[in-house]
Batch of 2 targets.
Target 1
Amino acid sequence: MVNEREKKVILLVACLASFLVPYTGSSITVALPAIAAQFNADAVTLGWITSAYIVSAALFIVPFGRLADILGRKKIFVLGVLIFTVASLASALAPAAGFLIAARFVQGIGGAMLFATSVAMVTQVYGPGERGRALGITIATVYAGLSIGPFLGGILTDHFGWPAIFLINVPLGLATIALTLTGVSHEWTDAAGEHFDLYGSVVYGIMVFSAIFGMLLLPEPAAGLWIFVAGCTFAIFIWWEKRCTSPLLDLTIFSGNQTFVFSNIAAMINYGATFAVAVLLSLYLQYIRGFSAETAGFILVAQPVVQMIFSPIAGNLSDRIEPRIVATIGMVITALGLSFFIFLTPVTPLYAIIISLMVLGFGYALFSSPNTNAIMSSVDIRYLGIASSMVATMRSLGQVLSMAIAMFCFSVFIGSVAITPASYPALLTSITVAFLIFTCLCIIGVGVSYVRGTIHNS
């Protein structure tokens, strides 16, 4: 039995880990023009600097979630923080764009280990009556990272250079490792003694990589071939997992569990519609509006600050009110916030942009905590590792989808050229078209969220 002190330490280290990853991702968005200037990178390369982490995380979350069930969640969590910290140092020392992309990929491996374990540990030690609140706090720290990221990233980029963004992760990562090793005594191994499905992991990796790479290659003709490969390997993966005695992904978790299935799909759609917002607006504010990285970061803070404030409240609500209702209202408000950015112009008032970001943040806060609560509460305790992995996988796949849409628009309207004043009109067109697609995607998400089913017995 975990005592109250250890429960608080588990929540704290989960929050620290949940802060590190989004802080890094959101701070990079305001540093992209500075990175482009140093490495003479085009818009598509900038997209890969953002996407490399997401691709890696999506590939490894489920395998590491399974390994955590077998070897212990604490072990995988600590190793994940270590890898993330070392990769952050390597990113800061990157001599070229290709090296930075590679370092970001390694960061994604560490991030996969963190997100495959942190939510599961919190869910394991907090019961149904307090789980929503604990998950709300955890998710609030995600938004704290998103909030501080653009602002702090802008200051660091303008005054110390973009590598300083990554260097901050080193002491934070080491502190998280020390706190976990000294304050957490339990090691959760719900599948101890079972075999790791290496063959299934390889097939799964090929499937996910092919799907992601195909999406990111659009509109290149080769994209269709990669997506076809993904479809074939998906069929092989399902066939193998049904016959494997110790599968990577126990497919019975999906059988007859409408809440679990649709909540995961809703999560992917929500991330798909919102993740690239900061990237697009950062480019808009710095290139088209001419603001510094620091100023752009200050403006972008409006969204995650609202998310951070309201996530614990939404999590609390989902302990008392059916998560389906709260999350669906959140998805509606998110779609409303996104729709405004379809009408961006070079002279759109800043107050209108900030208000729209706040609306978007409020909608996202209402959706995310209740949706995560619905996913984690809809499965038996022996499936917590898989459920936690699926939460993180849907996040990563949604983020990839979001960046794929953005990069598709860049490819169509700008092409593989450096962003210059001559290409600003094309940049604005690509941004507004991307927001149109995001809004439509979010509207579909409203229906998916609403039909998920219930978890409260009343």
Note: The two ends are 29 Å apart (CA to CA).
Target 2
Amino acid sequence: MRLGILGPAGDDMIGLARAAQLLLDEAHAEKVIYLCDDGALERVVFSWASEIIGENPSGGGLFNRAAARCARAGPEEIDHFVEGERARLRLDVFVSLPSRQSRTIEILDGRVVLFVYDKATLDEEDISSAQLLVFGKAREPLIRRVGARVFLAPGPIGCPTGGSAVLDDGADGIRIEILGPGCVVTASEQIGGPRPGKMRVQGG
């Protein structure tokens, strides 16, 4: 799985939209987590969905849109409608932290990855249970090993050496890449190693 991460945007909505688009189209992220709860990502996604669908682009409005546009439509119009809805569904890959005090957890390569806005809210149980701790509140990008754990911050949107990141869990563990403007990799780290193969026991 390729998991994209977006740092807090502040007031830089254009930068957030650009970074989110690059994670989807250039980094090929299958899911993108925005490390803040300020509603900025939701506004960006709603704007994109409105451009694709028009008014009321929510999933709940699908039946009404289908009834209004397809009841008397020809095959080409229906195909166009379906393509638009598929493009809208693609936007579901974008999610934000539920709140600045909450944690989100993902399992990558069998390891617990914890996402939080402010690392100061982490307690001993959080730190002991996670191998990778990702946080949004930071002035600049950071990858730091502390014992068996790694702390990661992509840095804020607009940061010249960061703003977003990708976690890729492949056969060699989790690869961390911090991305600067233009989806350029500015720092990277590897967690774990090759997964052990199956042992075959032969007996006489």
Note: The radius of gyration is 20 Å.
